[in-house]
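Blinded run. Sample ID left blank on purpose so nobody reads anything into the name before looking at the predicted structure. Input follows.
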Amino acid sequence: MMRTLTVKVPERLDLRLAALGKRRGTTKSEVVREALETFCEAPGGKAAGSCLDLAGDIAGSLEGPRDLSRNEKHLRGYGQ
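Blinded prediction complete.
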């Protein structure tokens, strides 16, 4: 059973929620539910996730090799 919760958010956040929902093919409500679940399950109430989860919106936005971990040229001398 779902309960209704009304939350007021700034217009900018509403636009971001709508855009994220559109990209995921879901609703703003689902995006907010997922965010609240993640927040509530994290130790100390802080959002948890991998580095990619936390920086996912900027991942791939820079020019350069796609994956340094598999590029022998960039690994030369590492760990010696």
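Unblinding after everyone has recorded impressions. The helical segments are 11-24, 28-41, 51-55, 72-75.
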